[in-house]
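Weekly modeling sync, notes
Attendees: AB, CL, MP (scribe)

Item 1: holo prediction request
CL wants a bound-state model with IPE before deciding which constructs to order. AB pointed out that an apo prediction alone won't tell us much about the pocket. Agreed to run with the ligand included and paste results into these notes for async review.

Input as submitted:
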Amino acid sequence: MNEGQQRIGRTAANGAATIDPNKLPQHVAIIMDGNGRWAQNRGSARTVGHRAGVQNLRTIVRASVSIGIPMLTVFAFSTENWERPPEEVAYLMKLLDEVLEREADELHRNGVRIRVIGARTGLPESTLRAIEAVERRTAGNTRLWLNVAWNYGGRADILQAVRRIAERVAAGDLAPEAIDEQLFTSFLYTAGMPDPDLVIRTGGELRISNFLLWQSAYAELYVSDVYWPDFDEEHYRKAIIAYQGRQRRFGGL
Ligand code: IPE
Ligand code: IPE
Ligand code: MG
């Protein structure tokens, strides 16, 4: 355990390695970081790491279903990730198409509802079609709600909400006094979803990198040094156990 983890990722006081089914986080969000370093450490191209990362997402989705987590949001491509070399960006876009098409059957069979959150503008036509198809197909599923944050940025999320609210105000449909937290939340990409209780970041960086800024106001943070492709079910369970050992105060006493 590194210094950061000790500071913000406390393990359960009794050290017991079991999850309390009555205190499950209702929404887990994961910053899936470290694919590139994982690959580089093995002398492989970064793209190899992204592919291994997809494989691991499958593991964590299955684990979420078996643990009984109702909602999982994964950060897969940020609004800032466009800054990467065009070959890597193109590879990631193609990978999403492939995953949405290839995994849809199994996810659907397992009762997973898929939503892609983030800006749709700038995405290739093929990606837009794949997103719409999988969202439509899985819309009725209730076992696990899986949100894939793609072309997602917390600031962009807040701005698109502000813009749409401003349009309503300008049109005379909404009074400025009616803008409260509940209304604002309903304009975010995550409308209708509970705030994340637990935000996990793999790959060891101690930052939020523009993920769910508004929504994680009171989320518990857990950072693991393990690179995403190696973050297996056991690591995941450990994170949930650490969460269950936290005392949440929400500003109270
Ligand atoms: C996370 O892994 C996946 C994406 C951001 C698409 P990285 O690609 O950021 O891997 P590192 O952080 O460079 O190791
Ligand atoms: C955060 O990882 C975004 C995703 C995991 C999709 P980054 O690798 O982009 O974050 P920084 O650049 O280290 O802050
Ligand atoms: Mg990274």
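Recorded for review: The radius of gyration is 19 Å.
Action items: CL to compare against the apo run; MP to circulate these notes.
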